[in-house]
């Protein structure tokens, strides 16, 4: 390398190196190049829903797999389309920029006139640095000047004269701020991504025909290009076709057909009986029959031959292929072909864009596909580079199979990576969530609001309670995640950002519903923790607590500690006002319903086997409840007796009790009269927190403010 000519390009400026040591660092970086190029950042301005400045969309990316999730209209397709515009795609399908693609501000002001998309590539290979030498920007990374590549794609709405039709000018330049040289066609072709559209027509792409995607894929594979030798006409017909290349087989087939007696006879007759009589004197017309694709340059001939091929799935257990395959199977076949090309064609940028890979696939196939994509994204190609894969999905099934580190949540026009260091999650939390973030819980990434609960009873009962107080969770796009007794804090931290001042916060309301786990002083005897007249065991010898164990300030401190475990930003923890779910329901006005529901759950098997009727059990439950009321002079004692019926019998399912309670409330409170006033306040506040966000139902600001006040007090 000639040191006199070595310089640093940054934003179109040429900066002379400061010292020979700096030059030596650059040289060492060049020589020790063992990296795999990848798209490290995407910035989008004024494209569809994304604005500019503070409202610009910025997506940091890592090597390997990135899965972009979020509700409809979050911007997932816009991200993929922006990459298609900036980089182009290998199928060479033209994507036209429309006027509707230019951002329309929410305040109704004039539509923007300029779209800007910037892609940054890190860890360039030696080949990349050679191919893009004049476009590189050098940045200081820990004292070393490291080459990176910026692609700034810009579309501008222009008019030549007033009153003339508008047209859109497009250009792509290098440099951090787009002030470097404009990229030529060859450079842009080198960066083209492989793109798989949603609801793709895989069967058509893999069928024979002009311009088929299968022919494009096969033409660039190493196996097609390097296997076999050309056909030499001097060898005649005594060659082994297995040793020939695809073009060699085409030429060999042409020679075979040319020597076929039937073909020769037809050709001779055509020439002698027809073309001879249609020719002018001195200008004899003659026909020659050959295989299509036997003329022209090598690339053209190869493509024509490959366009005659089609790909179909075979069952190794069946001698013949089925008459047709379903959309899902064909999509798997199509994706496998694209991966084959991406792995084998080392001349091209290894980026794969997939929209909705779950299209037409059943759940088990979705899981298998995502495992496969994650494996391929971590394996090196023959040239040492790794494939970078960016997928968008609406599938909780797929999302549950993706490492949380690889997820990016889109919401409110912003990208929120879930990688370690971006959230409040600790390193150990990622291992826990990898084990327990299943399909049911993964729906939290597609919700407009989220209730996180610690048990089956809350999971079953809360949707019914919300519906009966005119807060239908489905109407508000609210999901419930049942995380058991140990995962509430970990799941809540998914929605808490590590650097909210820089990255913003996820504006999705999250309500964590937690038990207080402090029973009234009368409860230990009623639920048979101790015998009547017996003193309580020492506090160090028991895991349960009563209010008498605490001072008034101590009870407040305990409540604050429970809230602090999972509160902050848009996450609020709502702690049971008294003790636990069933107790609080009984304490605030639903004692008769809870008692009846528990009695029904106790006799559930008898009811299902028709040994008892539901009506009979309810009648017996109401009689026994009347006796409990007589023997419970205080509300605390009544609620303790109701909860004790459930807590003291391990054979009674809390989930089954909740199902019966939901059914009773549905049938008795269809008019919703005063139900809100007799529900535990913490449940009402939690439901309001996730449904009054943004007042999507048009509720009054006063009601919203009251709900917020209740949440703050809690």
* Average of per-residue pLDDT values: 81
Proportion of helical residues: 25-40%
Radius of gyration based on Cα positions: 35 Å
Structural class: alpha/beta
Q: Give the biggest sheet.
A: 6 strands, antiparallel
* Beta-strand fraction estimate: 5-15%
Name the shape in a single word.
elongated
Helical run tally: 26
Low-confidence stretches: 1-34, 696-714
Q: How many strand segments? A: 18
Span between N and C termini? Answer: 69 Å
Could you explain the architecture of this structure?
This protein has 714 residues and is α/β, with parallel strands linked by helices. Helix content is 38%, strand content 14%. The protein contains 26 helices and 18 strands. The longest helix has 22 residues. The protein starts with 7 loop residues before the first strand and ends with a helix.
Give a short summary of the structure.
The protein has about 725 residues and is an alpha/beta fold. Helix content is about 40%, strand content about 15%. α20 packs across α22 (about 615-630).
SSE inventory with pairings:
Layout: E1 8-10, E2 13-15, H1 20-31, E3 38-45, E4 57-60, E5 65-69, H2 76-87, E6 114-122, H3 126-131, E7 136-141, E8 144-158, E9 167-173, H4 185-190, E10 194-196, H5 202-205, H6 213-219, H7 222-226, H8 246-258, H9 261-275, H10 298-306, H11 327-344, E11 351-355, H12 363-378, E12 388-392, H13 396-400, E13 407-411, E14 414-417, H14 427-436, E15 449-453, H15 456-468, E16 478-482, H16 488-493, H17 500-503, E17 510-514, H18 523-526, H19 552-564, E18 571-575, H20 581-602, H21 604-608, H22 614-630, H23 635-647, H24 654-668, H25 681-691, H26 701-713
Parallel strand pairs: 5-12, 5-13, 10-11, 11-12, 15-16, 15-17, 17-18
Antiparallel strand pairs: 1-2, 3-4, 3-6, 6-8, 7-8, 8-9, 13-14
Helix pairs in contact: 6-10, 15-24, 20-22, 20-23, 20-24, 25-26
């Amino acid at each position: 390398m000639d040191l006199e000519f070595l310089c640093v390009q940054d934003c179109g400026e040429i900066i002379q190196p400061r010292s020979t040591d700096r030059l030596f660092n650059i040289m060492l970086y060049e020589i020790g190049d063992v990296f795999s190029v990848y798209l490290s950042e995407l910035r989008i301005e004024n494209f569809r829903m994304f604005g500019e400045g503070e409202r610009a969309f910025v997506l940091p990316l890592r090597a390997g797999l990135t899965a972009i999730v979020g509700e409809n209209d979050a911007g997932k397709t816009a991200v993929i389309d922006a990459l298609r515009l900036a980089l182009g795609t290998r199928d060479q399908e033209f994507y036209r920029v429309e006027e509707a693609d230019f951002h329309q501000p929410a305040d109704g002001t004039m539509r923007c006139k300029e779209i800007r998309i910037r892609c940054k590539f890190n860890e360039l290979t030696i080949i990349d640095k050679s191919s893009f030498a004049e476009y590189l920007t050098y940045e200081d990374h820990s004292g070393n000047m490291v080459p990176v590549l910026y692609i700034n794609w810009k579309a501008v709405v222009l008019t030549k004269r007033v009153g003339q039709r508008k047209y859109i000018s497009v250009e792509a330049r290098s440099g951090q701020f787009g002030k470097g040289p404009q990229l030529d066609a060859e450079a842009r072709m080198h960066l083209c991504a492989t793109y798989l559209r949603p609801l793709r027509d895989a069967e058509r792409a893999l069928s024979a025909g002009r311009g088929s995607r299968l022919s494009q894929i096969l033409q660039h594979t190493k196996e097609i290009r390097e296997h076999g030798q050309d056909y030499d006409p001097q060898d005649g017909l005594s060659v082994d076709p297995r040793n020939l290349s695809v073009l060699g087989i085409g030429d060999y087939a042409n020679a075979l057909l040319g020597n076929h007696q039937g073909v020769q006879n037809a050709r001779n007759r055509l020439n002698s009986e027809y073309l001879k009589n249609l020719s002018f004197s001195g200008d004899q017309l003659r026909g020659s029959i050959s295989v299509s694709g036997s003329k022209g340059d090598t690339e053209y001939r190869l493509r024509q031959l490959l366009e005659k091929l089609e790909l179909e799935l075979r069952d190794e257990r069946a001698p013949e292929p089925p008459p047709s395959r379903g959309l899902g199977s064909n999509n798997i076949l199509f994706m496998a072909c694209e991966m084959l090309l991406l792995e084998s064609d080392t001349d091209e940028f290894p980026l794969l864009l997939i929209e909705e890979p779950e299209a037409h696939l059943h759940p088990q196939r979705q899981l298998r596909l995502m495992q496969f994509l994650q494996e391929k994204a971590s394996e090196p190609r023959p040239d040492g580079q790794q494939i970078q894969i960016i997928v968008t999905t609406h599938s909780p099934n797929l999302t549950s199979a993706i490492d949380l580190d690889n997820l990016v949540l889109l919401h409110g026009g912003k990208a929120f990576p879930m990688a370690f260091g971006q959230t409040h999650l600790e390193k150990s939390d990622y291992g826990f969530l990898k084990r327990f973030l299943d399909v049911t819980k993964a729906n939290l990434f597609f919700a407009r609001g989220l209730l996180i609960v610690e048990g089956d009873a809350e999971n079953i009962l809360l949707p019914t309670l919300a519906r009966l107080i005119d807060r239908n969770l489905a109407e508000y796009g609210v999901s419930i995640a049942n995380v058991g007794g140990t995962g509430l804090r970990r799941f809540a931290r998914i929605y808490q950002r590590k650097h909210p001042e820089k990255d913003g916060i996820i504006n999705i309301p999250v309500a964590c519903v937690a038990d207080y786990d402090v029973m009234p002083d009368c409860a230990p005897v009623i639920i048979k923790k101790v015998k009547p007249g017996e003193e309580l065991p020492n506090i160090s010898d028991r895991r349960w607590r009563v209010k008498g164990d605490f001072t008034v300030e101590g009870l407040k401190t305990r409540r604050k500690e429970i809230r602090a475990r999972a509160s902050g930003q848009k996450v609020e923890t709502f702690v049971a006002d008294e003790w636990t779910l069933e107790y609080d329901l009984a304490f605030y006005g639903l004692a008769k319903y809870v008692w009846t529901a528990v009695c029904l759950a106790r006799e559930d098997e008898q009811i299902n086997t028709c040994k008892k009727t539901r009506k009979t059990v309810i009648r017996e439950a109401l009689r026994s409840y009347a006796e409990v009321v007589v023997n419970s002079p205080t509300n605390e004692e009544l609620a303790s007796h109701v909860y004790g019926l459930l807590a003291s019998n391990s054979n009674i399912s809390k989930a089954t009790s909740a199902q019966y309670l939901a059914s009773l409330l549905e049938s008795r409170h269809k008019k919703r009269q005063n139900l809100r006033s007799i529900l535990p306040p913490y449940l009402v506040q939690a439901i309001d927190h996730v449904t009054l966000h943004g007042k999507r139902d048009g509720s009054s600001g006063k009601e919203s403010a009251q709900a917020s006040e209740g949440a703050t007090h809690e």
